[in-house]
Specification:
- The complex is a heterodimer of chains A (about 280) and B (about 160).
- Chain A is built from 10 helices and 14 strands.
- Chain A is an alpha+beta fold.
- In chain A, β2, α2 and β3 form a beta-alpha-beta unit.
- In chain A, α3 packs across α4 and α9 crosses α10.
- Chain B has about 160 residues and is α+β, with helices and mostly antiparallel strands.
- Chain B has 5 helices and 5 strands.
- Chain B has a 5-stranded mixed β-sheet, sandwiched between helices.
- In chain B, β3 and β4 form a beta hairpin.
- Chain B starts with a strand and ends with a helix.
- Classes of the chains: A alpha+beta (about 280), B alpha+beta (about 160).
- Chains A and B meet through α2 and α5 of A and β4 of B.
Chain lengths: ~280, ~160
Amino acid sequence: MRETIRVTTLSQALEAKREHPDSLPIAGGTDLMVELNFRTRRPEQLLDLNPVAELRGFTVVDGMLRLGAGLTHTQIVHELAGRAPALAQAARTVGSPQIRNRGTIGGNLATASPAGDLLPPLIACDATVELASARGTRRIPVAEFCTGPKRSVLDPDELIVSLELPLAAGPQEFSKVGTRNAMVIAVCSLCVALDPRARSVAAAIGSAAPTVRRAPEAEQFAAAELDWDGASPLDARVAARFGELVAAAASPIDDVRGTAAYRRHALSVLAARALAWTWSARCA
Amino acid sequence: MRLKLTVNGDEREVDGVWEADSLLTVLREQLALPGSKNACEQGECGSCSVYLDDELVCSCLVLATQAEGRRVVTVEGIATAAGLHPIQQAFIDSGAVQCGFCTPGLIVAVHDLLARISNPSDTQIREALAGNICRCTGYEKILDAVRVVAWQRADGAA
């Protein structure tokens, strides 16, 4: 490796990326440093994004959360638990305190892993991502960012600048299956979010398809079955059917972390529970 | 390249840092601070835990050049001139040290936990130490050591 490109502003970073499209951006480094330590990736240049102030922090404007790409998982856990509960729950399941202190939301998206823990909440909440280059800026749904495992629509000269999602409109839950409560890559994961005013249900599945995806049939089924006018408890048959439809929306594979059949089964259990938890929170 | 940073309160300059080196490599190989251990090099074990600007991090996952101008505290900076830090003494007294390899990382992680939460619950201790792996003790003695320090502090002894 020849050098680390040093920048302090976003415009300098975009200019550096235009001049050196092969340079590898590094923020928290929790994924990238593993590849450098094991020499599985040998970039000519790294672009250090840590000093770029524009990528830090978050703002709330008109009911929308704008999260800088450099926001760490720890900051999400501590500062967004009320405003984006599923995102904060997901961030809390990432790695360990050491990893959460360094790893960023922009990095979690850039890695484009189907097991990226922040992706199900972002996609369930219809989040968008701002991609910038020296050519200009575009904003796309997070659901359209990943095109396959470790593949995305990010152009070589682009950087992830921010993410935007609405403040939680109702109860949300993130669930994840793994062998421990910490330090695990999800075997499968699920986010369920209710919007009582719109009478809608969102469900996004992680680690059970080439990219994180929604379960539209399950969402429509639950939205039609829930007693939005009253507060009737969730019918166990509705919860079970919702679970089946979520599982049917996945296309998991057998791998070292679990089998496809186990992932489908686990998703159906997670979905039935998450619908019950969110619905009882809505009725409370 | 040359790196300037503050380590355990001292301003240090390091020449000949390779661009892809981790902070851990620089601490161990160039700053003669072998307390932070090199085991997994992928953030799984926590034995390289240090503070970077007051935040607990795995030094194997910090690019050394990202530490330019920043403050690093390693396990060597936890002990005082007067002797062991009370956390270190509690580890010894509680039998929380067996082979000792994970101990430096755990000392820094416990230091960070108790700075944030002075009287942590068992659940909080387990969550805070989830990134530090020990293959000897079964963790119970480590939990004992954390509780001992918290009690000592509540009594004003530490």
